[in-house]
Amino acid sequence: MTETVSGAAKSAGIAGKAAGMTIERVFSTDGVHPYDELTWERRDVVQTNWKTGETVFEQRGVEFPSTWSVNASTIVTTKYFRGAVGTDVREWSLKQLIDRVVSTYVKGGLDHGYFATPTDATVFEHELTWLLVNQYFSFNSPVWFNVGTKSPQQVSACFILSVDDSMDSILNWYKEEGFIFKGGSGAGLNLSRIRSSKELLSSGGTASGPVSFMRGADASAGTIKSGGATRRAAKMVVLDVDHPDIVEFVETKAREEDKIRALRDAGFDMDLGGHDITSVQYQNANNSVRVSDEFMRAVEEGTSFGLRSRMTHEVIETVDARELFRKISKAAWECADPGLQYDDTINDWHTNPETGRITASNPCSEYMSLDNSSCNLASLNLLKFLKDDNTFDAELFAKAVEVIITAMDISICFADFPTEAIGKTTVDYRQLGIGYANLGALLMAMGLGYDSDGGRAMAATVTSLMTGVSYRRSAELAGVVGPYAGYARNAEAHKRVMRKHQAANDAVRTLGIADAQVHKLATQAWAEVQKLGETNGFRNAQASVLAPTGTIGFMMDCDTTGIEPDFSLVKFKKLVGGGSMQIVNQTIPRALTKLGYAEEQVEAIVAFIAEHGHVIDAPGLKTEHYEIFDTAMGARALKPMGHVRMMAATQPFLSGAISKTVNLPETATVEEIEDIYLQSWKLGLKATAVYRDNCKVGQPLADGKSDSSKADQARATSSSVEPVTEVKEVVVYRPTRKRLPKSRTSRTTSFTVGGAEGYMTSGAHDDGQLGEVFLKLGKQGSTLAGVMDAFSIAVSIGLQYGVPLETYVSKFTNLSFEPAGLTDDADVRMSKSIMDYIFRRLALDYLSFEDRSMLGIYSAEERQRYLETGSYEALAISEAESLKADVPVEATIVEDAPADEAPAPEAPQAAVKEAHTSAELLEKITGTAVDSPLCMTCGTKMRPAGSCYVCEGCGSTSGCS
């Protein structure tokens, strides 16, 4: 097991049917190397743990294109550059990294007859390099870790193992899984072959059952960790619903969660990573129940269901199907496990049933294939293919898919594998996993709601095009280097699944010009798949999945990961040289412009979002457009079924499945989870996982302890201490009124809001602090004039008694009523009401720049300065000059705009104090918790990505590469 199995030797000798492939030059320029088309700069990468202040990584003078965000360069430098830091062998340029990988792929293609001529190999090299350096796609992490190094050339991130009903097989499972964890990857397997605790051994004793053996594997995973790092290993454990130990399996993690609560209440440190959490079992795996159509129909009909012996397959126990389904849903409500995998649906789309059934998945549930197999992944950045007119460039997307699929298949020729069985299956069936990221950002930029018919139609057509082009290229490759070794025995089944994909594509109903254009190309691709596949067969048993794209999503500067919607409309951004600011998602101005909003309206809406974190009551935004800006978290969070419907729209066009968790609010019921599981089955999903906010105790919050934990511990402590009677002196503080001097400085402002005219007179103390406001609206003696006089007196007295102006501004800005609309004030172009205008004007006249920044209020001059310099604040002369100097920049940015977009109007403001990521920022703005773990590397709160979590600061993931 210490030696890896090479795919190169196994794939050698395949006789090609044609003289190699001709590679078309599409992206790169003939005679110009892709690197020479970019401007390169040197940067310093310094990472610290904000909690401890400790420097966790430092490498200075690294080289990246100027178009790459500092966050992307930070993550690539820390995660993917090889060689010991501080030595001459350490990689220091992105060019070295990409050349190391691409040159290995090109050599593999030449060695195994993929290219018609050396010129085609050169074109392929340039095309692949161009796509990578311009962030159009990325391979999965193991490629960047291993390819081109002296380490084994492991290119796969996803593994499926198998275990039989013998002690040798069980112990070998522990061993194989351990080596996969050691290499930084994850694995999944099905334990259903192991006989239950209700069956006898050949010796006459009673079997231990699969759940007991899960303890040993769980302890192994927790001990080895993953890739030698501090994060947990990634693993999936599956059990069939008809296994006699299914109830014990379903309830294992829920019972452990009860144990965690009891230990926490007793004062033990039960946070994830805490000193005492290791006493809890089954925490290192995702658990899933493999359910059949027979079981789901029994649930619908309310009938009984039989649990079968593993040895004789006879029914040894009968249970109520609905009661068992209820236990599954209740356990998921309590601790987010188990998820469901729909066995009959999975195997109905299986291209290799003659070889064996699909019984399990990788840890994130997107890779589903034969036992003892692996899959290498690559994901495209969808936003890169959005044209200036906000339509999707389907033709360019298809060309990129062709290049990427070719490269992915070549990698299997030279790849190494952790076991001989995995190596043989992977080489014989050549499973690939092309996918994408930034779907949420793409839909928003196109003015399409994530949970809308238009959004789903666009996602379906893009996914169909991707998989159709992938299989078309796979058939073309089969004509050059031959079909996969297992194709002959599975030819009819494989072609049947291709027809199912084509039929699903034909069933898509497009709603606009943009998705209709994509669908037309997808339809052509699937027609060619049938024709070429009939002649050549296919090079790959599997082509596509939708992975979490955590770390590589940041490498590509994506706003959203995988199939996910946008996490939130506000982002956290650390500044070069220190400090931080809050920015609005760069896709929002693009979407508003697409929807036809004027520049002034876009500016006002973006400013509102910067302050509130949502679009509800944003000035001038039509309510029918709210859904376009729905997000995973926040005031307009997507409904759970919105996530399910999006998965259902794309699932028929994927070889594998989708890594995604359906998030539910803390108030969700068991019945709601039952409905999600049932509807997912009816809609044709292959797998579903749920997570109810705050359902788990063993998970650190930003302060290390949840509020409920602190309160519980406080009550526990107080109950064990004798009451003490104290007499305290009570001091009552009364406000003092600070009257204005007899003669004071004042200013009078005339204004027009939505056609209504008025005047405002404001008076200040000698120190310039606002002390009174008088408003004149309407005719003297009218009701409106009287109300304004009374309002002015109330505000003035409040100011003189010490109520801060900031409080009035925060309360009255964005107050919405008529008259509203355009104003005659260059600094405040749009106003939702007269009150909204008045207090924005007062903020501009009397508050400091720093205070106004916290409220998202800027003058016209400051907004113009931002468009020109990227900063609202005027730079001192020395600072302005220093920006011109060619000096390295410290790589600590967390989020940045896509590299190919010009700066769009946005409303950055000083980041809320104590926030260190977008997740923490959203918590501060909205006052609601984001139930995510802290990063073990840099200490910041992670955010969901697929069925795991990813850190914005350093790119670490909670289990998925």
Automatic annotation (TrEMBL):
Region annotated Disordered, chain positions: 701-720
Residue ranges annotated for the Ribonucleotide reductase class II vitamin B12-dependent N-terminal domain, each copy included: 44-135
Catalyzed chemical reaction(s): a 2'-deoxyribonucleoside 5'-diphosphate + [thioredoxin]-disulfide + H2O = a ribonucleoside 5'-diphosphate + [thioredoxin]-dithiol
TSCPD domain boundaries: 741-845
Residue stretches making up the Ribonucleotide reductase large subunit C-terminal domain: 156-691
Keyword Oxidoreductase set for record: yes
Basic and acidic residues bias locations: 704-713
TM regions (residue ranges): none
Cross-referenced InterPro entries: RdRp_reductase_class-2, RNR_2_N, RNR_lg_C, RNR_NrdJ/NrdZ, TSCPD_dom
Cofactor or coenzyme needed: adenosylcob(III)alamin
Record-level Gene Ontology MF annotations: cobalamin binding; cobalt ion binding; nucleotide binding; ribonucleoside-diphosphate reductase activity, thioredoxin disulfide as acceptor
SUPFAM superfamilies: PFL-like glycyl radical enzymes
Enzyme Commission no: 1.17.4.1
Superkingdom of origin organism: Bacteria
Function: Catalyzes the reduction of ribonucleotides to deoxyribonucleotides. May function to provide a pool of deoxyribonucleotide precursors for DNA repair during oxygen limitation and/or for immediate growth after restoration of oxygen.
Classification via PANTHER family: RIBONUCLEOSIDE-DIPHOSPHATE REDUCTASE, VITAMIN B12-DEPENDENT RIBONUCLEOTIDE REDUCTASE
Protein name: Vitamin B12-dependent ribonucleotide reductase
